[in-house]
Design goal:
Layout: E1 8-15, H1 25-42, E2 45-52, E3 55-62, H2 68-77
Antiparallel strand pairs: 1-3, 2-3
Length: 78
Amino acid sequence: MRHTFLWVRVHLVWSTYRRQRWIAFAWQERLYRCLAAIAKRKGAMVLAVGGWRDHVHIYVSLPANLMIGDLVNTLKSN
């Protein structure tokens, strides 16, 4: 009998345009909550979200039917 185990965890990082410090402290947490909600709607399990004023990190576990590129495109376009 075959058993399949799939474990895809991805650490995504992207920066603001020209590494400008556009992510203000006042709404940083709201941004992270929004990114987590978008990823969850796509079917990803969000393990961590964070960053700084010029970049964002998101660590997710992906299901077998979700392509990394689709998730990145959705996160960056919303």
